[in-house]
Structures are given as structure tokens and as C-alpha cells.
Amino acid sequence: MALESQVAIVTGATGIVGEGIARAFLQAGATVVAPIRSAGKEAALREALGSPPAERLHCPLDEYTTAEGAKALARWAALKFGAVDHIVACTGGMVPMAVLSAVTPSDFNAAMHDRVLGQVVLAQALAPLLREAQRSSYTVITGRLGVRCTMADGALFAIANAAVYGMVQALQAQLREKPQRVNELRIGAIVRRDSEAEHPHFPGKKSHPASLVAAEALRIAAGQQADDIVRLYLD
Ligand SMILES: NC(=O)c1ccc[n+]([C@@H]2O[C@H](COP(=O)([O-])OP(=O)(O)OC[C@H]3O[C@@H](n4cnc5c(N)ncnc54)[C@H](OP(=O)(O)O)[C@@H]3O)[C@@H](O)[C@H]2O)c1
Predict the structure, then answer these.
(1) Are 42 and 16 in contact (CB under 8 A)?
(2) Among its keywords, does the record have Oxidoreductase (predicted)?
(3) Residue ranges of domains in the chain
(4) pTM of the model
(5) Does the pLDDT at position 225 exceed 90?
């Protein structure tokens, strides 16, 4: 199996895309750390992931998108595993939908906090945990709206996504002389859970199963590419 005996941290595993990635990594033999932000979500996540043995799926309770929470997660993982082989930062979720002229300062700040600062503090805390080896990988999951805003009311998605592209560039620059690989997986599509027919916020719109994204995330982790932007444009 591609990730046999390797340890991966997958953030956002209670969400649509992250759940698919956690499942694919478990199926590939990895031990998965899937931090959860509220205790009530652990049972459903374990069930959705096929109830893997406890030693293969760890769900520390942690508000990992704050600076303190991200550091606490890193301390927990360092104590438990020493170093980790892969990190997939798949954190974010929805933002208020509005055209640019209707974006309020508080919605802007919330989107930047939830979708951008959350990625920055995770990278700061977790990247140092990566085993110093070429097989180690850090993958950030993003969406295409920062390249072309195809939904007029997706202004905050466009702005926040573009900021995360910059965060990835900065992380790649910082680790460029190191063996650890940093990549962005940029999704151009609406993605749904495999178990559901559509995305709950975009009813009636064409969507693709999370397993398609997960297969690509697995290919990046198990492969050799570095410093890359992998575009998974499905529409
Ligand atoms: N689904 C799509 O159609 C799609 C398309 C293109 C790109 N993407 C990208 O894929 C990534 C994940 O998207 P998703 O659709 O899987 O999102 P989702 O279903 O809304 O899940 C978001 C995940 O992030 C976690 N999270 C952590 N901090 C958060 C915060 N401050 N606000 C909201 N959620 C937070 C959530 O935890 P809790 O469960 O505790 O809230 C959940 O696990 C995002 O970067 C997104 O841009 C998704």
C-alpha cells in the first residue's frame, strides 16, 4: 500500500473534501490524525471512515485554526509520533455569499480569519513536524475561484483563495532547500461527499465526488512532485 506505516495529518476531515482524503489515506495504509473542533463530531467521522481501528485513526479535539490551537495540535502529534510523513491542510468551508459591492468589513475579516489565517497558523505549527525526507509532503487544498471568479456572489471565495495561493508560495519558498515537498491541490469544481447526491449549499448544481479529489491528494503524497500547483479542473 502506498502509505503503509506512514503518518498523515488531515485537517478538515469532518468536511466534504477532507473526509474523502482521510478515507483514501487510511485505505492506502496510513495512520491518520484527523483533528476535530467539536467532540460531538468524532463518532460520525469514525463511522463515515468505516470505523478503522483506534490506532489507525486519531481524532484529537482541538480548535486548530487558531495560533494556539495549531500549536497544541503540533505538540500532541510530536509527543505521539515524533515526526509525521504527510500533512494535508483541507480547512475552510463556506464564506458568506455576496457580490464584491455587498461585502461587509466583518464578513471580509471572518473569511480572511477562517480561510486564510487558519492556513497560515497551521503551516507555521505543522510544517516543522514533517520528517526531513523527500517522501514527506505538505499539501494545501484550494479552490479555483481565486483564479477566475465564476460566481459573482463568490467574491469572498475569490479573495480568500487568492490569499491562500500566496501562502502556499511563501511556504514553498521557505522549504525550497529542504527535502520536504510542498504542493497546492487546486480544485476547479463543486465537490460533494461520495455518500451524497449534491453539495448541500449548491443544490441542483453539477458536483463531483470527493473520492476524485482524494485520489489526486494521495497521488501527490505518494509521489515525488514538489513546488507544484496541481490543477484538478473537473468542469
Ligand atoms: N467542496 C467543494 O465544492 C470545494 C470546491 C473547491 C475547493 N474546495 C476546497 O476544499 C477545502 C475544504 O472544503 P469543503 O467543501 O470540504 O468544506 P466543508 O465541508 O465546509 O468542511 C470544512 C472543514 O474545515 C473545518 N474548519 C476548520 N476551521 C474552520 C472554520 N474556521 N470555518 C469553517 N470550517 C472550518 C471544518 O470543521 P468543522 O466540521 O468543525 O466545522 C470542516 O472539517 C476548502 O479549502 C475549499 O476551498 C472545496
Answers:
(1) no
(2) yes
(3) 7-94+124-142+178-233
(4) 0.97
(5) yes
Which CATH number applies to 7-94+124-142+178-233: 3.40.640.10, 3.40.50.720, 3.40.50.2000, 2.60.120.970? 3.40.50.720
- Residue that is written with C-alpha cell 507544484 in the block: 228
Torsion (CA) 53, 57, 62, 67 in degrees, nearest 10: 160
Which grid coordinates are listed for 155? Answer: 467574491
Q: In angstroms, what is the span from residue 151 Cα to ligand 1's centroid?
A: 18
- Ligand 1 near 154 CB (within 6 A): no
d(CA 187, CA 166): 16
Say how many Å lie between the CA of residue 90 and the centre of ligand 1.
6
Return d(Cα 219, Cα 216) in angstroms, integer.
5
HSE toward the beta carbon, residue 21, CA cutoff 13 A: 32
Q: For 141-176, how does the pLDDT look when each residue is reduced to its tens digit (9 = 90+)?
A: 999 999 999 999 999 999 999 999 999 999 999 999
For residue 13, which atom of ligand 1 is closest to its CA? 43
Interior CA angle at 149 toward 148 and 151, to 5°?
145
Question: How far apart, in whole angstroms, are the C-alpha atoms of residue 115 and residue 91?
Answer: 7
Distance from the alpha carbon of residue 176 to the mean position of ligand 1, in angstroms:
27
Nearest CA to ligand 1 atom 43: 12
Q: Is 151 in the pocket of ligand 1 (CB under 6 A)?
A: no
C-alpha cell, 79: 509527543
